[in-house]
Specification:
- By secondary structure, the chain is of the alpha+beta class.
- The protein has one domain (about 5-45).
- It is built from two helices and two strands; from the N terminus they run ααββ.
- It has a two-stranded antiparallel ribbon.
- The longest helix is centred in the middle third of the chain and has 13 residues, at about 15-25.
- The mean pLDDT is about 85.
Length: about 50
Amino acid sequence: MLTAESVSTRLAVSPAAAHPSLTELAKAGILGRTKGQRGRLVCSTAAWRG
């Protein structure tokens, strides 16, 4: 499970810089997006291609 915060910590960049990368990976179908009860993005996960 990836969040902008976890990616930013691992890569030493800001969460604001990590977010567009996660968005692009989701658009490409590499990552799935999980939303919370209020419809806000909570985390990204590896997309299942089974």
